[in-house]
Write a structure and sequence with these properties.
The chain has 304 residues and is of the alpha+beta class. The chain folds into two domains: 7-32 and 233-300, no CATH class; 36-232, Lambda Exonuclease, Chain A. The chain contains eleven helices and eleven strands. It has helices at 8-16, 18-26, 36-54, 57-70, 90-103, 107-110, 162-167, 170-181, 221-241, 252-255, 270-280; strands at residues 2-7, 29-31, 111-113, 116-125, 128-136, 138-141, 147-155, 194-201, 209-215, 281-287, 290-295. Helix 3 (36-54) packs antiparallel against helix 4 and helix 8 (170-181) crosses helix 9. It is globular.
Length: 304
């Protein structure tokens, strides 16, 4: 029996738009220029992980800058007069990081494990063993002798309802399921599976950090697993039939957060589509532990 591995990110891609899932995960086509919001989140996540493991702002700041270099220096070093609205910069990132360290000085002390990669079996779909793969941002103390998993989010919109959608999301449910399978809640005193949701606001002037807790009983975690398997069934069906419909029912999914990376391809045809692919996209594949990018050529886009 074939074993296939899926991540929450893949499920989210498909749920957002099957065509987006196709471009990113089947054709493995990515934009040459990564969105600044994604790059900023990657750099900040790397920095927070190092802060928790080293208890050093200097080490965390170096980790932010190392991630910036590794990511291709997508972020500007600082906001300029030419682009005054560009506040996702290295300088602003380090300022937010410094404020975070001062706001949560006990983070390293309360961290049991700074990061956990997982791969757990979730069931069988269409004669395939399905594995759920991902990365938990950390395992932290709950202050009562037990443990929680952590989930970090960077966002420019950190309002009163931010955690409402996240708390009941498939992502939190699946990560709690995987953590429970790994026994991460059995560290110290056995506790009900819970997740510390850690939100960092990205803003040109304001500093805001907020946390909340999502708690799920063990007997409800299988509902998230079963729902994930239903999504995987749809994804496999699309792959087998080579059918990936556009989400042109809810156009807000195409335009929110600065717009989908693949929006220019949505209705492009012929020579325009070909030109867009050649000049704005690249092929990206994982070889070993690293992702390798290569430019698209005309022969590559014949069947795309």
């Amino acid at each position: 029996m074939i074993t296939s591995s899926y991540t929450y990110s893949k499920i989210l891609d498909y749920a957002t738009c099957p065509k987006l899932y196709y471009w990113r995960n089947v054709a493995k086509i990515t934009p040459i220029k990564k969105a600044k919001a994604l790059s900023f989140g990657y750099c900040m996540s790397n920095a927070i992980r190092f802060y928790r493991s080293t208890a050093s702002f200097d080490e965390a700041a170096k980790a932010f800058q190392d991630a910036w270099i590794e990511d291709g220096k997508i972020l500007s070093i600082r906001t300029t007069d030419e682009d005054p609205k560009d506040f996702r910069t290295v300088q602003r990132g380090l300022e937010i990081l410094e404020a975070y360290v001062k706001f949560y000085p006990d983070d390293p002390e309360n961290t049991i494990r700074p990061e956990v990669s997982f791969e757990v079996p979730v069931g069988v779909v269409r004669d395939r063993n399905i594995m759920l793969r991902g990365r938990i941002d950390g395992v932290v103390s709950d202050g009562k002798g037990g443990a929680r998993i952590g989930e970090d989010k960077t966002t420019s919109r950190l309002g009163d309802t931010f955690f409402d959608a996240l708390r009941g999301s498939l992502q939190i449910g699946l990560y709690l399921y995987a953590a429970d399978q790994y026994g991460l809640f059995d560290i110290g005193k056995r506790t009900t599976p819970s997740c510390l949701m850690n939100a960092i606001k990205v803003h040109p002037k304001e500093f805001k950090f907020t946390r909340d807790v999502a708690i799920k009983s063990r007997n409800t975690l299988h509902f998230f697993k079963e729902n994930a398997l239903r999504w995987v069934d749809r994804m496999i069906a699309s792959e087998e039939e080579n059918i990936y419909p556009l989400n042109d029912i809810d156009n807000s999914t195409c335009t929110k957060y600065g717009g989908c990376d693949y929006l220019p391809l949505k209705y492009a045809e012929g020579e325009l589509r070909k030109a867009l692919l050649l000049h704005n996209f690249q092929r990206k594949e994982k070889i070993g532990e690293k992702y390798v990018s290569s430019p698209l050529e005309e022969k590559d886009i014949i069947n795309l």
